[in-house]
Structures are given as C-alpha cells and as structure tokens.
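User: For my dataset I need records formatted as: sequence, then structure tokens, nothing else. Please produce one.
Assistant:
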Amino acid sequence: MHLKAALIAILLTIRLGISSAQASPQVVVSIKPLHSLVAGVMAGIAQPKLLIRGQASPHTYALRPSGASALQAAEVVFWIGEESEAFLSKPLRTLARKAVVVALTDTEEIHWLSLRQGLVWNSHDRETEESYSGDDHEGRDPHLWLDPNNAKVMVQIIVTTLQAVDPEQAQAYHDNGQRLRKRLDALDAVLREGLSSLSQKPYLVFHDAYQYFEKHYNLHPIGAVTPSHEHSPGMQRLQTLRTQMLGSGGRCVFTEPQFSPKLLRVVSNGLEVKHGVLDPIGAELSAGPDLYFTLLNNLSKSLQECLH
C-alpha cells in the first residue's frame, strides 16, 4: 500500500525546509479518531496536538486562539478534509503555510462510500449502495474512519508522511505502524464476531454517520433522524421514520452524547423499543492512542446491548 508518487515528492521537497535540529516535528490533527492513529504512530517519539477537544463537533466548530497558534507552529497537519471539517479550510491556507498538510480526502487508497440519499432506508437500498467513484469530493460520506480497513490505510499514510518529514525516526514510525495495523486486525476480528448476529435486527440512528461501520459489519439500519448536525427534521419526516420503525419491527433508537434525544422520543413514543447511545467521534473519550479502539468497541457494545 503506497501513497501517490506526487504526494511523496511534495513531502520530500518540503522536508528540506524543516530544521534538522528539531528532535521531532510539530504535528497537529483535527479530530479525535485521526489523532488517535497519529498518536499511535508517534508513540515514544512525540505527542501530536489535537484541535477539536471535548464534545465539540467538527461540523460546527470554531477555531480557538490556541488552535490558531498550533497551526502557525505546525510542521505537519492531518485532517479528514473539507467535507468533515469545513472550518479548517481557510486557516490551513492562511496559518499553516509552512506545514505539510495531509487531507485524507486526497487519498485514492481510502475506500469511499457515497452519501446515502434520504433518511429512510430499506433492504433494497442496502443491497444497491455503492462505493464512491466520482472524480470530485462532493457526494462522499466523510466518516471514513469507522471502517477498520480505512484506518489501516490511514496508518500507512501517517507513517509515510512522518518518515518523509522526520527521516531520523523512520524506523520507529515504521515499527509503530506495524504494531498499530496488527492491533487493528485484532480489533476487527473481535468486533466481527460480536456483531455477527445483528445483521437482521433493524434500528434507527440520530444522524447518518455510521455507514462505514454498518457496511463493514453487515448491520441493518433503517434510517436517520437527520443527515447531519446542522439540519433539523420536520414533523413529517419524524412521522415517516415512526412509520418505518413500526413496519420494520425496529428494536432500538440511538442518540448521540452531544445532542438532546427529544427528536428520537417523538419517533419512538409509545413504541416498544429500547434506547441507546452511539458516538461516531469519541466525544466523551479521552484523546490518545487508545481512543480509536475504545471508540469502535463502544459502538459494538452499544449495538449489542440494545439489539439483543
């Protein structure tokens, strides 16, 4: 698995402008799941800085002065891309001028999925969902980190980038990346076994963030209350989802820790369903190299507890 030759050439060129006297590069990362993987690759070398902390959402985040300072000092910046973190587009151009900026949206090796159409899905929709094959970035689902196979691609991108920028630690980055990929394989095997009995158990989510996880583990979502945090559904949409829950025999509705569950209560009021919590970004988790693994384990645990 390799980065595009053009990206490698750019990295090698920019590397020449980075001081060789510095022990390790100043690395900044946008969101917690990506930061977790970067922290794993940099284990024992340095700690990357995280921009979006706590329960903040990348869809609505406003850059703080501390974040602006971090970008100005950064030598490497990892982010998902404009689809996920639109607030970063301008600061990266104006503040992170000396940094190597790596957007996962520019990576051909990532397995991309198209955004789902509508907020109510059925079995036919699941059978006909396709990978994204367009040339531009519009229409792609940005929640790519929830597929463990994509996480392994991300690790390789991180390793290759840091080796080019910091060649003195190239072997350490390589070794950390190898350990991280083995750990991801082990996680994937455990999750696949635990979720294998849930493929025919329908459920409803708060917002459409889990497609990569659902497709990877053959799960059966029937709809989402909203396509994103910025959109609030009308009563007609909520009634349609309620009808879908009744018709499908949906067992569970999932909210998210950052948001009020009142919209889901409108859908589920009077129905014999359970309520659970899914978190696509680790809002309530402590940042660090273990976050990614806790994040996916928590998704699996929440689904199993609510759907069994």
